[in-house]
Amino acid sequence: MPVLQDLLSNIRVDQWVVAYVVITLPVALSLLARLRLHAQIASVSVRATAQLLFIALVLLPVFRSTLLVQEAVILVMMGIGSMIARERGRDLPGAFVVSAFSLVAGVLPVLAVALVTRALALIPNIVIPITGMLIGNATQTVGLLYYKTGSDFDAHREMIEAMMLDGADFNTAMDHPRQETLRNAMVPRIDSLKTLGIVHIPGTMAGMMIAGAHPLEAAGYQLLIFFAIVATAALSASVASRAIYRRLFVANYPHLAP
Fold it and tell me: What are the sequence ranges of the domains in the chain?
């Protein structure tokens, strides 16, 4: 198989071996400190390896395929991202549908701006990986939002009911808990910008410089990606927050449904 031969010819065994040597450190720490995380670390490490090998095998023919196939791959990535986000919101009504809609609403506008302005070239080996970054980070943000939604709704339930009894509309009554949930979900993405370049050199910039690119060119490319990630996460989380709070409100107060 040409694809498999191409993959095997580009594998550096020493990198894979060293990677597994490094991951044994947190496993050993878990065992010594009795954290009971070693089994989980080991399983997710094997899972990560399998996923990377799988995506490498898939991407090689995808990069050489038609535009329709490439668009289908992006849709599958969004579907998987929606399912992962839903795992954090199993008790929330319609979490999968909200996740899918919010990912589309967050990723497509940001990606369209980057492509229309030609900040990103419309080339499969550029568009697909960067779209994956946007989907992945938006998925994490929406998942974190789901994780906080139930507890924030319950914590503000009395205030919501009191405001509704006083004649407040749905948006006014839900504004405070929704803002608090959205703010907490966005904190990791915002914090990632604080350390950008100073504490660590991000992966894209480091990879470009290793490949011989000028540091300023690499910095500009990395800035575009990081800002796109934050913008996508903000749009997706905002859409998901409004939709999931509305569904949660209707599920708890069907007679007051907006």
Answer: 1-64, 66-256
